[in-house]
Amino acid sequence: MRREAWPAIAGVVLLVLGSPPAHAETREKVRLILLDKCVADEWARRTIRAKVVDECKCAAARVARDLTDGQVAAFVDVAPTTPRDYWADASRACFTSPIK
User: Fold this and answer.
1) pTM score above 0.90
2) Cα dihedral across residues 86, 25, 75, 53: positive or negative
3) Range with the lowest mean pLDDT among 9-13, 28-32, 60-64, 87-91?
């Protein structure tokens, strides 16, 4: 095998071995959709906005982590409420700032 081919082969091997599983990208998209929606909604509702982004990051990550692979695959733009209300649970755990 020619010496010039080795970098290309190594690149392909690293690409295959270093790729995250398919659900990680989809789960990450779910997290980002929830984060964007949360920040927009909470920013409009609150006058004290110092912790909105951090609290929304926490809640979005918690929901994305807790969803099953099937729920992630079926996700459109709202966290499922069955078998439990994932967003309500995450909000109670993550939101500590007053809404005022």
Assistant:
1) no
2) positive
3) 9-13
